[in-house]
Every structure is written in structure tokens, then in C-alpha cells.
Amino acid sequence: MHNKQSKHTLLFIAGGVVLYFLSGAVDELRVYQGASIAVYVIAISSIILLTGYSGQVSLGHGALMAVGAYAAAVARIELNAPIIACFVIAVLAAAIGGALLGAAAARLTGPYLAGATLALAIGLPSLANQFSILGGEQGLLFDVGFPPLSLGEEFTQYKWFFWIAALAALISMWAVKNILGSRYGRTWRAIRGNEVAAALCGINSARSKILAFTISAGIAGLAGAMLSMTIGTVSPSAFPLALSFSLLTGAVLSGITTLGGVMIGAVVLVAIPEIADSVANRLGSSERVTTNLPGFLVSALLIMTVLFVPNGPVEQFRAHKVKKANSKLEKK
Amino acid sequence: MQLINTILIGITAGSIYALMAISMVLVWRSTRVINFAQAGMALLSSYFGFEAVSKFGSFWIALPVAMIGGALVATLIEMILIRLLVKHSSTGPIAAVAPIIATLGLLGVIRATASMIWGGQDVRIIGPVSNDGFTVNGTTLVFSPLKLLILITVLVLMLILSIIFQKTNIGLALRASAYAPEIARLSGIKVDWVRTLGWALAGATGAVAGMFQTINGNGTLSPDSIDFSLLLVSGFIAAVIGGLDSLPGAVIGGLVLGLMISFVLMYISGGLFFIAPFVILLLVLFIRPQGVFGAKAARRA
Q: What interface predicted TM-score (ipTM) does this complex get?
């Protein structure tokens, strides 16, 4: 086990080095998209932890991201906190929100939980209009500042965003991977598999579920802060219901139980608007179609995945391989 | 006077929520799926209604057109999507969340499709009677002939539905398939078709909710309209208050929710429009997780 963990750590360090060189080699737009991918990676891994492992559905992660983003922006503006502290505050604030939500969620199952979190996703962002400190419909500025001069003159703002987001993504992936491999990960899987049997083994299922919600929310909060960093502002309209849905789509595309597939979901989510654009341009369709094609594709993909590769491409491939190996064994 | 106003507005909005809740309950009873796409289907049906209004010029032709359209869409969805879903995704860790995810995807597809066809500008559906309030003793109420009409139509619809359920063979088949599908099948009921019928009824009911939600608001219809997000959440919450399984429960749930929201908006703050339903839902779920009218929770093991 110890050996495996240090292997993971090495893997993540290697990933960081690759990203470092990659960010120097591609153009500005790709760097920006890279930052978006990193944001999605963080957010999707929080969904995988929650839904794939502890078996709870949340359609409200967009709202938890908003909590993190607002917390970071308020800390930046009101307290003039250093940027790392802002991100830590984002994680903590969202985690507290998640713990409260989790306490409610632990009593709910399946569709009830989905509906409750859905109501939250619709309701919470509009609450920002109620408090003047949150800046209403316009929202707040969230400025992480220019990249440090020591990185050189040519180091662009987007590249700086990308670095921060990629580092955060690596750290949170590493953390999630280790949490899922720990006793808690096993506990969550036991509850997902059979709650009664888990309870008979002495697992306090309510407490474990709340813990899952808290951790997942904290990670979502980090993703929210990262998202608002890349767009520069925090406003209710940055966290629409569609965001919560795309996160779920990303998680399902990645394979809801396979953390390793998380890149697939994130890349697809970022690539879809661009693909949709080029398809719409080629067909020469009207603006109405062009603006709505991404949403259509995301949703259609979601349905298709649930119907035909319900457990995700990675899992499907693995199952296929196991099946093949088994049939080979039988022949022998 | 303000009190009467609040109550009347609450009841009108509540009766629309009740319709939405009924359609969610119908789907839940027939296939054990919470249909998060119900509001999207209502939206689509309302656009059918809009097309009919602009072609024939009469709301009373548009309403049945919307209902038939809604029923057809629901039938198609059940026959294609839901049957495939049951076939492919009922095992593995995804099983518990697959229906939720699929219907959410459906919501997205419907919204995007509606935006592609009708999006860009708001279209209007004009109600059959005026939405200007009645005047009593010189003061003008918010309660209008239109709201009265909505209330009456909803009551008539509920009456028709309860007659279908209580007095006809179709209703008996619907109830039997919901409570004991195996036994219903043994008694010669084609459970699959009854399920499809349940969806179709839900589609038609949801269509009425969509049409009324539109004309009860400012009359405009748009795919991103917040009215429909609210309809989705409120329908769900009303159904949960009613216990998800009970039609009378859904009606009462809708009315209770409508009244509560109306009172919160009038006496606490108008800005709580979106967060109030959430708080109400949490309260209900904390006090009675199985809903006010739901049966006792089944044993888990």
C-alpha cells in the first residue's frame, strides 16, 4: 500500500512536469482551454467522489462552486488576503456549506436528494442579489494579480491562470485519489453497495455520507474559485443550473466510478463548444442553432452515455478485457 | 385585503404547481422515475400551443393541441428512452442515478431543441380573458378573471383525472400496475402499455401546467425562462410534500406550496423567490421524509 502511494505521488509530479513544458509550447487559446480543463478536472473529481463512491447524487455542485468563488472573492476584496489564503478560504467555506447540505442529504435518498440539490442549484446563486457585499447581479471582481516578474517578461496572464489551476488540479486529484484509497473510500463503497450490510459491519453511514459531502463540497469550492479566477469575476450568472448539469455529464463521461477517466470528461466538456462551432459553421446554420448546439450535444451525449456505456468508457474497456481473458482461459 | 390577495395568488400558483406535481406523480407511479424533464416537456408543449394560437387565434384550440402534443412527446420518450434505460442501466453503481441523469439529459436536449427552433425572441401567448384584477369596492385586486379561469380549469381537470382513476377500467389498470406490476400482469393487464399511458397522461397534464404558467406570468415564453425552472422545482417539491405516490397528495402539496411561497414573498421579502421553495422542501423532508401523504417508509432490508 505504501509503495503504491509513493507511486501515485511520483505520477502526479511527473504529470506536473509534462504540463509545465506543454504550457510553453502551445498558443494562448489552448492555454486558456487548458485552464478550463483543469477547473473541470477538479470539479468532476468532486462529483466522482460523491456520486461514484458514496452513492449520493448532487445537482447542486454549481451552487457549492459559487460558495467557494464568492468566499475567495470576498476574502480578496475585504481582507486583501494573499491568493493562496483565498483558495484555502474557498475550500473551507464550501466545505462548511457542504457539511450543512450533507446533514440534510444523509436523510435523503436517490430522487429526493437530487430534487433537493436541484432546488439549491436554482435558488442559491440568486441569493447573491440579497447581500450588497456580494455585489448583486454584476458580481465581484476576482483578481489574482499579475504573474510574478521572476517568471520572465513573456509570461502571460493566461499562462499564470493555467499554472495555478493545473497545480490545484494535480493537488486535488492526488488528495482525492488517496482519500478514495483510504478507509473512507472503502467505507463509502460499502455504503453504496448495501447500506444495511454496511451498518451491520459497524459503519456509521450517516456520518460517512456527511463526510463525503463535506470533502466533495470543499473540492467543488476550490473549482469554483479557480473558475472565477479564469473569468476574472464572480457573479450569479457564472453558476447557472447548466454548470451543475455539465459537471454531472463530465462525471458520467469519465465513468462515474473511475477517477482515472476524469480527463476524458473534462476534455470533452471543453472541446464540445468548439466542435459545435465548427459543425455549425460548416452547415452554415443560423445563430440560434450555433448558440444552442453545445448544450444540445452535452445533453445528448449524457443520454447516450447512460444508455450505452453506463459505467464509463474506462470501466467498459476493462470489463471487455476481463471478459476476453476469461473466454481465453475457458478455451485452454 | 392584502391577506385575501395573498391567499388567492397563492392558490392560483399552487393549482398550477399541483398540475405539475400530478404529472410527476403519474410518471413516478408508472415507472418509478422522477422525471426532471417534465418541465422541459411542458415547455415544448407550450410551444405547440403557441403555434396553434398563432394559426387559429384561439386559446381554447391551443390548449388541447398542447395537451395532445405533450402526450405524444411523452409517449415517444417512454417508448424509446425509458425502455432502453430499464434494459441497459439497471445494474452496477450507475443504476441508482441512471434515471436521474437520463431525464436531466432529456431536459437539456429539449431545452436546446426548443431554443434552436423558437429561441432568440420571446413569443407571447395571450390568455382568453384579461389578467387585470377584479375591482371590489374601489380597490383593485391582483386576482383576475384569468386567474379565476385557471383555477376553474384546473379543478375540472382534476375532476376528470379522478374519474378516470376511480371509475374506469383504464384507471383500475393504471392503479393496479402501479401497486403490483407482477399481479397486474398475471391478471392480463399489459403493464408496458399501461406505463406508456401513464406517461402520456402526465405529458398532457404537464402541457396544461406549462400553458397556464405562461399566461399566468407575463405571457411570454422562452426556453431559458425562469418560469419553467420554477415549475420544475415547484412541481417536484409539491409532489414530495404529497408523498410522490398520491394524486390527492400532489394536489394538496401544490396548494400548500403555492400558499407558502405567496406568503413568504408578501410578508418577508420578494427577493426570496427562488430560495423559499428550497427551504420549504428541506423543512418537509426533515419533518416527514416520506412526504405528508406518503405511506410509511418501506423496510430497508
A: 0.82
